[in-house]
Design a protein that fits this description.
alpha+beta, Phosphorylase Kinase, domain 1, D-amino Acid Aminotransferase, Chain A, domain 1, 2 domains, six-stranded antiparallel β-sheet, 5 helices, globular
């Protein structure tokens, strides 16, 4: 198999099926600058299990994704997609009542993340008006689903990043949800389990990933 890209502790590979790609997780712990800081036991299998579980959750609520199946303990089969050069960041703004989601778009062209408004995205013809509306609607629905999903497991969803693309010509979720892409707070310990914390506590990272695995999967 030909490797397409390696980043953020995971790699994409071409397969014999031109409509599929293989996502393989690694045990590498990568910081926000893309530097490998070390290896974490069972991280790959934990991330693969959590990602597959959440993809199935989204599908059960009729949110289209590029997920096909879990091929092995560390590998997911994905539908080949045409990715939009945008990343959507969702954070929770604290109010007296329920947290309010705040959505921010970043352009991923030229290997840099540049903030963009919805008007700029349309003006640059990166997305059509309908595609942008679909993405915004899916993102807000995903935010509610994940907030409730994690809350039932004693975790608070603080923020997450998500990328969309076209699968068979239709807008779909084209990124995974793992402890590497979501910022969570453990309601018991009050620890904010985000990538920077895991990197700075690398000696404890294996136990922290296992804690998240147990809370999320059981």
């Amino acid at each position: 198999m030909k490797k397409i890209i390696l980043q953020d502790g995971k790699a994409l590979y071409e397969t014999d099926n031109e409509d599929e790609i293989l996502l393989k997780y690694t045990d590498d712990l990568v910081d926000n600058k893309g530097n490998v800081k070390g290896s974490v036991k069972n991280k790959a299998a934990i991330n693969a299990a959590i990602a597959a579980h959440i993809f199935k959750l989204l599908s059960s609520y009729h949110i289209p994704t590029f997920y096909k199946s879990q091929k092995s303990a560390k590998e997911l089969l994905l539908k080949k997609a045409q990715l939009f050069p945008l990343r959507l960041l969702i954070s929770q703004e604290k109010t007296d009542d329920e947290p309010t989601p705040v959505a921010k778009y970043e352009s991923l062209t030229n290997d840099t993340a540049t903030p963009m408004t919805a008007d700029q995205i349309i003006a640059a013809t990166i997305l059509s008006v309908q595609q942008l509306a679909d993405i915004h609607r899916y993102a807000l629905k995903i935010n509610v689903l994940l907030r409730n999903f994690f809350a039932r497991r004693g975790l608070e969803l603080l923020d997450f990043s998500i990328q969309f693309g076209l699968v068979n010509g239709k807008v779909a979720v084209c990124s995974d949800f793992t402890p590497d892409t979501c910022e969570l707070k453990d309601n018991e310990s009050k620890i904010k389990l985000k990538k920077s914390y895991l990197v700075s506590h690398i000696d404890d990272a294996s136990g922290l990933y296992e804690l998240l695995h147990q809370k999320i999967m059981f």
